[in-house]
Amino acid sequence: MRLTLMAAAIMLVSVQANASIEQQLTQCAATADKLDRLICYDKLAENVKSVTPALASTQAAPATVATTVAAPTAVAVAATAPQAPAANIVDDFGMEAKRVQENTVDKIYLEVQSITEDPYGAIKVTFTNGQVWKQTDGRKFNLKQGEKVYIEKAALGSFLMGTDERNAKARVKRLN
């Protein structure tokens, strides 16, 4: 019985707080001056931060918060959500780029379906898998239809296209 009354009271408080926040957001959005609007939003964020710990401490279980709190007060839900252990966060710090590199491919092999050349001599190559790549440097690069080429990652996010039969490469970018 007490738990039911407590849950009803919390729900009533959260609904009232939700309505109040919505009204304050509407007032902030109606402010014409950019600086005044920003100050209004900052004050509102401070109020939400101070209310969130109070809501979290009065809750009996995190599941109650998720079911009774409406979308605009999602901060309360995020504050009570389970988080990863601090040890994993500390251990992974600085390794984000390395993790991304581990899950990527550095070189792919494709078969040329068709080749077109623009007025400046740069080629546009369509491959059998539907990808289209265009040469971005001014070098002369000869290809034939049906030839197998590779595209590999180069420095600063660029790509190079070449063949295993010869040493020449052309800088390319993907169009689609």
Structure in words:
- It is a single chain.
- The chain is α+β, with helices and mostly antiparallel strands.
- 47% of the residues lie in helices and 20% in strands.
- It has six helices and six strands.
- It has helices spanning 2-30, 34-58, 62-68, 74-80, 86-92, 96-102, and strands at residues 107-117, 123-127, 132-135, 148-153, 159-162, 169-174.
- Strands 1-2-3-6-5-4 form a six-stranded antiparallel β-barrel.
- A hairpin with a 5-residue loop joins strand 4 (148-153) and strand 5.
- Helix 1 (2-30) packs antiparallel against helix 2 and helix 2 (34-58) crosses helix 4.
- It starts with a helix and ends with a strand.
- Mean pLDDT is 78; it is low at 59-82.
SSE order and pairing:
Layout: H1 2-30, H2 34-58, H3 62-68, H4 74-80, H5 86-92, H6 96-102, E1 107-117, E2 123-127, E3 132-135, E4 148-153, E5 159-162, E6 169-174
Helix pairs in contact: 1-2, 2-4
Summarize the structure.
The chain has 176 residues and is an alpha+beta fold.
Q: Beta fraction of the residues?
A: 15-25%
Total helical segments: 6
Number of β-strand runs: 6
Q: SS-based structural class?
A: alpha+beta
Low-confidence runs (pLDDT<50, min 5 residues)? 59-82
Principal-axes geometry comes out as elongated
Strand adjacency order, main sheet? 1-2-3-6-5-4
Largest sheet: 6 strands, antiparallel, barrel
Helix amount, in percent?
40-55%
Core attributes:
6 helices; 6 strands; six-stranded antiparallel barrel; alpha+beta; 176 residues
